[in-house]
UniProtKB/TrEMBL annotation:
InterPro entries: Cyt_P450 (IPR001128), Cyt_P450_B (IPR002397), Cyt_P450_sf (IPR036396). Keywords: Heme, Iron, Metal-binding, Monooxygenase, Oxidoreductase. Belongs to the cytochrome P450 family. The keyword Heme applies. The keyword Iron applies. One of its GO terms (biological process) is cholesterol catabolic process. SUPFAM superfamilies: Cytochrome P450. It holds the Pfam family p450. Gene3D superfamilies: Cytochrome P450 (1.10.630.10). This is Cytochrome P450.
Amino acid sequence: MTVTPAEQRPILSADDVDLSDRYFWQRPMAEREKAFELLRSLDRPRFYREIETSFAPPGPGYYALVKHADILEVSRNPEIFCSGDGGATNIPDMPAEFAEYFGSMINMDDPRHARLRRIVSRSFTPRMIKRFEADVEAAATKIVDDLLETGSGCDFVTEVAARLPLKIICDMMGIPERYYRFVFDRSNIILGGFDPEYVGDVSQLAGRLLNAGMELQQLVQDLAAHRAENPTDDLISSLVTANIDGEKLTMQELGSFFILLVVAGNETTRNAISHGMRLLTLHPDQRALWLSDIEGHTPRAVKEIVRLASPVNYMRRKVTRDHVMNGHLYRKGEKVVLYYWSANRDAAVFDNPYAFDITRDPNPHVGFGGPGPHFCLGAHLARREISVMFRELLRRVPQLEVGEPELLFSSFINGVKRMTAHF
Ligand code: HEM
């Protein structure tokens, strides 16, 4: 049974931490930080019962991996900790009817994962991202033009942070501008977590998710049918037209890949930009430092923003054979959840882990996942977008500040729904 926020006990020891109580994810950030610090101080990972959902009976439970070392080892050993058996993006096993829309490569293992990644990764190399550089810069300039035109401020999330990733991913795929809002609304539902603003009543969640998936798949498949006959230089055309190795995506693969791109590429970067702006508002010394040499500080500052923002809180894996890791025996069939947000605050790896330090170096954060076959495909693009957005903001609105963020109610995405900006 879940408790309501009013009944929540203060967190005094690791026994008070229940990651499967959905209201845990509504606690203030400082309490969540304390909770994960307590979990990291234990010798062994905690085992939790599974979150109840309307679309799957509760599964057997999961170990919460909160230490940086555990997350590296799991990510490096995909044949022992797999993504494919029930999915990596969800703690309960994904029901069969979800696979049509959400069964993309992030939820697969090799060799199927490797085949899909090979086909799509040609479009995500630094060289290809460079091709979109001018578009990213033009889009950021226009966003800041519009911000300045408001005269005094706006909602930072919808008017600034959300616009750049949405436009770029839609441009790459060749999605016309009139569909931006449609795509934005559906990705909000898919990553809406427990938040009633996006997912309504939790009992209706499965239907709403499937509907959003179906609508996005329909949009991309309609465009793809057209591109197969009239190819252009966009991503959809290259994915549905056989390339040099004769490999191409089927329509179902294209649909679920598009859904993955839209949700993975939009919300994550949006939230990194929003958290970054909040960090700059709270730390004027770091803003002044960044302003003193914008080009020079940007690469490390962006890394530090992704570390502290950790826009994706976790991924899940399933154990394929009995295995001892860092002193603990994991048995075949057990689940482990990799809490990146926690690993990015692990004092065993990061000095002064709660400090926002734009010169931090080294900064081996796991915000884009650990080292392994699923490491974020869009990491180059995301870094580029965040860099260009902040460069434009710092140059043209150096005094911009944001208010208290209104956070998304979710255990999976560290989302910001709204946050007023003023200058
Ligand atoms: C700050 C922004 C971003 C963050 C924090 C982020 C984070 C992540 C994480 C944690 C994973 C899973 C890694 C794993 O399972 O080991 C992932 C995978 C992925 N991301 Fe990102 N991501 C971001 C931006 C993007 C963008 C812009 C795109 C695409 C346009 C993208 C596309 C993907 C894809 C396709 C995968 C699956 C890769 C695979 O399974 O091989 N991401 N990302």
